[in-house]
Amino acid sequence: MWKKVGGNSLASLNVIRRISRGISNIPKRVEISDSTDINLFKPGQKYHGFLAKHVENIPEFRITAVYLIHEKTKAQYLHLYRNDTNNVFSVNFRTTPLASTGLPHILEHTVLCGSERFPVRDPFFKMLNRSLATFMNAMTASDYTMYPFSTQNYSDYRNLQKVYLDAVFKPNLKELDFMQEGWRLEYTDPANAKSNLTIKGVVYNEMKGVFSENENILGQKLQNLLLPDHTYGVISGGDPKDIPNLTWNDLVQFHKEHYHPSNSRIYSYGNFPLLPTLKYVDEEYLSKYEYFPPKHTEVPRQKRWNEPKQQDILCRYDSFGESFNKQNTVSISFLVSDTTNVYETFVMHFLTELLIKGPNSPFYKSLIEPNFSGGYTTSTGFDNQPRDGIFTIGLQNVRKNDFNKFFKIFDDTIDDVIKNGFEPEHIESVLHRYELSVKHETNNFGLNLLFAISPIWNHSDNVLNQLRVNELIGRLRSDLQEDPRFLQNLVEKFLKRNKHRLTLTMSADKEFDAKLAKQEQDLLKQKIKGLSDKDKQMIFEKGLELQAQQNEPAKTELLPILTIEDISSELERVEKVKSSLNNVQTQINKVNANGIVYFKGILNTIDLSPEQHMLLPLFCYVIHKLGTNKMTFKQFDSLVSRKTSGLSFSSYIGESLFHLHTYEPGLLINSYCLEKNVDSMWDIWHQIFTISKLDDLQRFQMLVQLYMSNLTHGIADSGHVYAMQAASGLVSGSAYQMELLSGLHHISYMKRLLNTTHYRGMLDEILNIAKILFNRNKLRVALNISTENEMPILTSYESFVNNLPEACTTTTQNDSTYVTGKVWSPTNSVNCQHHVLNVPVNYCSKAVLTVPYTHPDYAKLRILARLLSSKYLHPELREKQGAYGGGARLAGDGVFSFFSYRDPRNLETLDVFDDSFRWVKTNAEKLTEQDIFEAKLGVFQSVDAPIPPSQKGCEEFLKRVTPDIKQRHRVELLSVNKEDLCKMAEEYLGPKNILNTGKVVIGAKSDKMDVNKRVDELWTVMENVA
User: Fold this and answer.
1) Which stretches make up the Peptidase M16C associated domain (predicted)?
2) How does residue 20 score in pLDDT terms, banded at 50, 70 and 90?
């Protein structure tokens, strides 16, 4: 996948805030007798060809770090020992392309298509179902490529090491795999040489999808323009117009030059022994190479400009977004510090938070509060991914005649900061967030560390200093004390006197898509123009050869696999206590909370009117940003930032475990704080619960505009999620309610509401919702705390509950909190929708209503979804059709969903979904017990997801899935057999269940969307959600 790992963000440097994607599990723990071999490592000692350069403790993360150099190849190795069972391994390479052909990205895909030791078609995806990995992926950033995985099973760890190491150092790199993953000319019907030629390829379609999101266009162009002289001046993921210029020979040569051990950085984390890994890496791979100086991959510092520059670019008109005259973006960016300077990079992150985050920050006051935009762009912040850091302030949804206003405000704000500095409380609130985050543990801690350190490690061996967060904070506090103008001087240096300044504006063009389509057609004509009959025959034969390879049975027996014994028969149970405190049902989860108190609450919303329910997402966005009876919004925000992690509100739909269409509607609230601040956290929540007036109409109007802007951004990047939501809402009452609150329907509703309702009326309704919900009779609570200070924490909590207001309505948490929803469906056909979105790829989904969680068939359907994803949908959608992704999943409400992502096709994909039950029936005899077991492994990756302390016990609290119910589900999953799967496919996915089926396509208008011949389907075309 192509990704800016980390990238620009409004968040801080804090390494444990990094977000990773992947699957998670806690498999059966394996005790390793020599798991404490970390004590054997000493600086200056040699271990299996590696020299230990540094062995150091990092107390804030309870880590012992071992930094080693392979003596023969100079490969760098960093091991972070921590008593964490979720172990991580990764191989990183510095990859620095000088053209936008997508070379490192396509190589990342292709090396995972088979290797010398594992000559299996697509071993990466095959291992997804032969492993209990908590994370498996590969990522291409602007200047490095990484191959990380994580697991808690030691056998799995060694298996995946073998597959990953062989993939990166000894890949087959077959031309057919390059054609499949990168690009190829192929006939639209590969079996018919008289059909039209077209361009296909997984990465080709992926990048078309990436740049269907305007923010991605802006972010990429910003980097290219600010850093034009080397690798950052090109698109590492690939520009669709340039990808077809890449050759297979280019790919092979790039691997030879960049995937050498001397250019590698190897990472491991967790509590597994290190010595066996060093021994294997050295003996099987590194010892067989000679040192190859990686000078050719080094990235030089960008030469600084003498004068600022300005550029105007165009982007796609977003039919879901703001009015055309507001679809403009404006930004100012600076090239600032050397990111290998750890302290300066840390301070730039800190300074960025001070400048832009929250209502007490200077740029929020000057740019956001005046309400002439849709808020910050996603590229706003400090980006430490490149060799030279980038600071950006940008606004989205700005009228062109407000551009000059933005420029003046920016310069005036910088001058004001240089003159007056920052409020001490504001500085303390940011420092507090850093210190709190050091103690807060996430479930993918080792991966988050890897993602955080990789940008600096890519250019420097000074990686350990980045982990010493307490030292960095201490040094910053000292600098602030010694020099009161320390931060102001940095602002002046980097944001006032810095000539390397780029002003970038982006405006929507209604002809943008047509121009892209023409560009693609011209490119295709150019590729075809010089082809001889012999060339065309060769293309035809290559297409048939690729199709034959795709249809060949995979030799999965060559890959390592776990056994049934590796799946624990028993789930991990959490010590908890349940009680009722003054009518508030409370669940105390006793965990190792590391000095933090975690609070979750659900407020039942059953007494809200339908119109109030539709306003609930907006309520969640604004209610804690409008001030309280005692404090202005700025005072309140300052208090929240100095004492807690922040307040979180979200609408909640809890599906019934026992009945279809039935759900618990609610408002989910949560926060966490250091134990010493627990009284303050309860005071903060008490202020929220006792809000009795909301008067700041101007601020409310500004918040609504920000909400709407955020609501309509990112649809293309998450198109498959919206498609699944919309399709599920056609068949399930609970899913329909979710779609109303977070899907395309909600966007449409909010647009209509803003066109027909005054802001004063909306604000009054927000207050009415607060008065209905904020009382203890509506509330149930979960607390995750350590046992050491349990009594004072619970005493403080009891005082908080006793002081909460009582209900003004009769319904309480002791009454029935579930409702049953209804959905409309046509009498004799499938309900289908085409949501028209002007993007060059499609997002398709089919939803089938099946059974609730506790039904005996649920476990069987869950295994069936995984089997279809790996054995049928992945080969059909990705390998053959060129979609970036696709699969099937079973949701908690009993909806069985098919989906595709960044898909060049639409109706053909729906046909693939429809044929799934026939595929099961046709291939029933070929399905082996091994196939079924692999599907079970895939399911248990998510069933046994690793749970951080903050979330332990919360599945029972949120979804009422008790340990006994969950244990019964485990047993049912393990007992599924082939006969069960065949029966499920026939019963639920076949024609007999047609009236419980819905289909959705999100994509552009197209001649291919000819639904007239689909007589069993009733299609509705949604031209514009407004």
Assistant:
1) 506-753
2) very low
